[in-house]
Description:
The protein is built from 21 helices and 4 strands. By secondary structure, it is mainly α. It has a two-stranded antiparallel ribbon with strand order 1-4. Strands 2-3 form a two-stranded antiparallel sheet. It is elongated and about 95 Å long. The longest helix has 29 residues, at 134-162. The model has no long low-confidence stretch (mean pLDDT 86). The protein has 3 domains: 1-40 and 131-318, Growth Hormone, Chain: A; 47-114, no CATH class; 325-518, Up-down Bundle (Growth Hormone, Chain: A). The chain starts with a helix and ends with a helix. Helices cover 65% and strands 2% of the residues. The protein has helices spanning 3-9, 15-35, 38-41, 62-69, 123-127, 134-162, 164-183, 188-214, 222-246, 250-258, 260-267, 275-280, 284-297, 307-316, 332-356, 366-390, 393-413, 419-447, 453-474, 484-499, 515-518, and strands at 47-49, 82-84, 105-107, 112-114.
Amino acid sequence: MKFEDLLLETGGFGRFQILILVILCLPRINLPMHFLLHNFLAATPSHHCAIPHQEAFVNLTAEEVLLVSIPREPDGTFRSCEMFSEPQFHLLLNSSLQSDNKSIIQRCQHGWVYDHSQLTSTISTQWDLVCEQRGLNQATATFFFIGVTMGAVVFGYLSDRFGRKTMLLLSLVCSAVFGMLSAASISYTMLAITRTLTGVALSGVSLIVLPLAMEWVDIQHRTFTGILSSIFWSIGNMLLALVAYLVREWHWLLVAVTGPCLLNIVCLWWVPESARWLIAKGKVKQAHRHLLRCARMNRRKDFAVSPEDLTRMAMDKKPEGSYFYTSLFRTPVLRKISLCTGVVWFGVSFSYYGMSMNLTGFGLNIYLSQFVFGVIEIPAKMITYVMVNRIGRRQSQAWTLILTGLCIGANIVIPKPFTALRSVVAVMAKGFSEAAFTTVYLYTSELYPTILRQNGMGYTSFMARLGGSLAPLVFLLDEVWRSLPEVTYCSVAVCSGTVAFLLPETLNVCLPEDIEDIE
């Protein structure tokens, strides 16, 4: 007897599964609020050098003070990181006479003045993470994703060893604690450390929620479960724009996006441990209790499976020894799957966060851009739901990634003046990227056997967060060549999409229970 047969005995997909899905989708809303928080936490408003000795300009307007103190770019805007060593009063007579003499231009000496019309306070304005310190600003996102990367390894192993629900509860508690400590940061170093630890904790939430839900649903509803969970991510994406718009001060913004973790901790009380995992580990009494509760909620009074039946089932699938990440590479088919999924996850995450952390492509303010990015994802997920059931997981994964890369590449060659066309292509790229991310979560959870599923998800999540860690740093390559970041995102997406063709198809296939099922 397979676990899918047990699910049919308990009513298949009923009220019990719906309750679990609703509760487990709540943490998914909270995830993008942290994963994309860098867009607002570290946003850099327009700024210029602070001008000393303002009393010397008592008869000048604010615009005239800037004119004689700050050099201008060719497009007429004031430079952000340079100032005149001495006031250039002759520019009041003819502002077009910009001097080419670099000896009178120097870096900012007295700090910066920021435009607070949109952003009251960010870490950029708090600790002057601009100009020469711009790398530290981008590094805050990298620190967070390094934490997520480490958490993927830790929670992937622990949830296979000690259970899905236990580790999910631990990760939610740690997320709430470290999130609040981040909000109380009094230095950049403290923020970097606490954001890294928040990333470690949230990685457990990201890693466990979907597999735990998938292990309680039948084959026919696996795709629905994956897409529904992903839609709640998009809802969180849109809610982040609303929360950031209402809370403009970075300390309180961190409090606002961390608070929902407390609600998730309370709601987790009604979620049972994975019966599939319990049986695989030989804990048949607990598994039988949860299955009995499932049958009762689904109004199946004829549920006749006994603990002895589950014991025989567990003995048939008794794993030999313990498993760790090295187990993913010991057998030929599993080794091929692990290598390919690692590349695919890296490409999906790298291209997704590369676009999601660039909110200036629409010509809108950052709040509206963030909201639009969230809205775009909904139809992408609806199309994904149809695609993965019609053409399969493998084709969907490969082509969504390849098309993401091609759209990014197209915007490299489309001239800047064609803003409408560039915006349409950017929207298409974001849609394909989200479709690739939606597919990869569903696809990967179906590729690995139950005894190694969380190890597999932990390994692939590690690769994804490695891509997420590098994505924000790639923006700094624009100092080498303006289009180099886009070329990098394009190349990685196309190459990883091509690798996806090497994976096996899982459409309408039972979830594998052990390594023998894979081989």
